[in-house]
Amino acid sequence: MDAKDAVTKLISKISSFTVTPNYEVLFFSSEIYKVVDIIDFFDGKMKHKDSVKQELDKFEVGDRNTAGTDLNLVFKTFLEQMAMIKTRVKEEAFKEHRHVIILFTDGGYNMGGSPKPNVERIKQMIYMNHTSEPGTQSREEFLDIYIFAIGAEIYDEDLQPLTAGIGLQHYFRLKDIKNLQKTFDEIIGDI
């Protein structure tokens, strides 16, 4: 199983739920390679999971730069997309959106600096400061960040703090991508 297969299988599993999510799919190294843009769902260019799978099928790594891992750039990209959605749908509608980020990485990051500040900005955008104000309802259920660290050399102390969510486990450490299907089955079974 490669990364494209893993994402395709995850989308198939998610499609068994009653919700119809919008997707942002990107691959990354020291650069971002956008496969599916979540804004396309808002513009009507993407309609369902089959369109996402078709875009994944078309994506080829080819001669792209695959050196380095810049998680900061990844989270900055997600933050920018979320800000664009918030602008389009307006504040009240944005409050009802649930956000799930599922990130597969090779065990750490070695470029672009720490992604923690951008993760915190994402949390603040979604939580709207409601988690710390007495008497207000927590908004933690509106954001889940899952990290799948895959490889022989994984920096748990760098990656675990980037997760978010309540209830389920949000950090997974795998030796190789072959174990991913079993992990997906376990996660989906817990929901």
Automatic annotation (TrEMBL):
Q: Which UniProt keywords apply?
A: Glycoprotein, Repeat, Sushi
Residue span(s) of domain VWFA: 1-187
**Could you tell me the superkingdom of the organism this chain comes from?**
Eukaryota
What's in the GO CC field? Answer: extracellular exosome
Keyword check for DNA-binding: no
What is the name of the protein in this document? VWFA domain-containing protein
Q: Which BP terms does GO give this entry?
A: complement activation; response to bacterium
| Species, as recorded | Pleuronectes platessa
Gene3D superfamilies for the chain = von Willebrand factor, type A domain
Tell me the InterPro entries matching this sequence: VWF_A, vWFA_dom_sf
